[in-house]
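Most newcomers find our protein records easier to grasp once they have seen one. Sequence and backbone structure share a record, each on its own labelled line. Nothing more is needed to start thinking about how sequence determines fold. As an example, a complete record with its sequence and its structure tokens follows.
=====
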Amino acid sequence: MSRWRIKQPPQTREARANRQLSRTEQQEAETEFAFHCRAHRLPQPEQQHYWARDLGRQFRADFAWPKYRILVEVQGGIWMPDGVGAHSGGKAITQDIIKAQHAVLLGWWLLPVTTTQVKNGEAIDLARRALLAHGWDGVPVPYSPTRQRSLIE
């Protein structure tokens, strides 16, 4: 190991607390979006779906409908101070742009949604409209307890 290492400034307690808040907010929004998928009886999405392995990339989407080539990314921590949110720093924004570019090149629709859009119902409406545009017949999927468990776990 090199003895000449640039020291990073120490993180403040506030920055660490904000980052944790961002993760919690995003996890809650993902759980809520999964609930909305069941409540609106949409086809079951895959959670934490790896979609670019053919290219040797480890891109993962929060929700995916591979049959319809639709990805949903819940963007949490957008309004965190000092760029401590999951998607608010320069490096994270650059990675999100590269991810979106690859999605387009591979024929996926990538729908980034905010936690506010999940809470107010806009996100589920966007997902429903995207599914309809990509061939879903709109017939509600029957509810099943097994399906509920798989979306929560």
In short: The mean pLDDT is 81. The longest helix spans residues 13-39.
